[in-house]
Amino acid sequence: xxxxxxxxxxxxxxxxxxxxxxxxxxxxxxxxxxxxxxxxxxxxxxxxxxxxxxxxxxxxxxxxxxxxxxxxxxxxxxxxxxxxxxxxxxxxxxxxxxxxxxxxxxxxxxxxxxxxxxxxxxxxxxxxxxxxxxxxxxxxxxxxxxxxxxxxxxxxxxxxxxxxxxxxxxxxxxxxxxxxxxxxxxxxxxxxxxxxxxxxxxxxxxxxxxxxxxxxxxxxxxxxxxxxxxxxxxxxxxxxxxxxxxxxxxxxxxxxxxxxxxxxxxxxxxxxxxxxxxxxxxxxxxxxxxxxxxxxxxxxxxxxxxxxxxxxxxxxxxxxxxxxxxxxxxxxxxxxxxxxxxxxxxxxxxxxxxxxxxxxxxxxxxxxxxxxxxxxxxxxxxxxxxxxxxxxxxxxxxxxxxxxxxxxxxxxxxxxxxxxxxxxxxxxxxx
Length: 431
Fold this sequence. Notes:
Elements: E1 5-11, H1 18-26, E2 33-40, H2 46-54, E3 60-65, H3 70-80, E4 85-88, E5 94-95, H4 99-109, E6 114-119, E7 123-124, H5 132-138, H6 150-159, E8 170-173, H7 174-179, H8 191-202, E9 206-215, E10 217-218, H9 230-249, H10 254-275, H11 280-286, H12 291-299, H13 308-324, E11 327-331, H14 335-346, E12 353-358, E13 365-367, E14 370-374, E15 384-388, H15 395-405, E16 410-412, H16 415-426
Parallel strand pairs: 1-2, 1-4, 2-3, 6-9, 7-10, 11-12, 11-15, 12-14, 15-16
Antiparallel strand pairs: 4-8, 5-9, 6-8, 13-14
Helix pairs in contact: 6-8, 6-10, 8-9, 9-10, 13-16, 14-16
């Protein structure tokens, strides 16, 4: 009898994490599944580990192949899958206890093609810095219920800033994947953005269940933390083109178009951020792009040089604000906020910093030796400046919130200034 659920796990050089991943499935009380482990040309002991487990459990199917990337491995798994429902699990991640039972219950309760679910709190390897923005990105704060089309869910979750472009957070009906010829784009990075977006645009019936079933691990060397590269920038351009083609070639309501554009803007911002960390030769390659890619490279004002002089001037402006105003609030207490504080400290410019601010703060705390408070706990005045220290996609929303409270003086730490501060803190030149 065919299994009800196929769990596809692409594997590449994860010997230190693989057993945690596999055991999170084997320890489930629900057992009507097959686990398809695709060894994508691992050079460590990953292949041996899964071969040994396969000999002990008939539900495990192991496939060894030459290295072709995560998309290639997932597609091999899709071709081999016998289950009626498909889910994806990265080999350094895990499922929570009882996850498969909850999904089986949802399968029986809802006649849909896609079931979405949520992440448990992220797990960070020892020595890794907790990233509040990454935690926020993977969390879902809103309530999304009922059987709806994928477009409806996409639009609502983009508007609620809760849409996550991760294949690991969805279960798919196998017949639906086959009917719609759904495959992962091979040779790409950020292929999840393409696959999950297309899935939502095509799906007529899906459900989101507010259950935290997937555990992401943040580790050094993973896709989530890898160094910036030209390929990353190119693939972000590719995803943007996918989104634009959807807008201009298909019928959508204005609200749906707005959601797609909002999604595209976030990806374009990420493209700009990646490009800002590239070397001269890679930037030159970006400027050789043609067509839509050339349009975005030019529109985003990607420089072939690093523009160090302009960044120096912008940084001097930050120092002037920090030293001139009697009260300085760092709005944003994540990685960017910490980096800004440490840089200002290095340049003896923290004497007027009143504290960090965040939009919502249920419990008073401190960071870097100064208080962290809710933004409306601070009082506006002519001698108060608010320095926005968060990801660029939050800038306008944060300024609007602060203006509503009564603040009038702002300074933005953008991605270029953040990159410049990286160099100052490391003692390296940004030229």
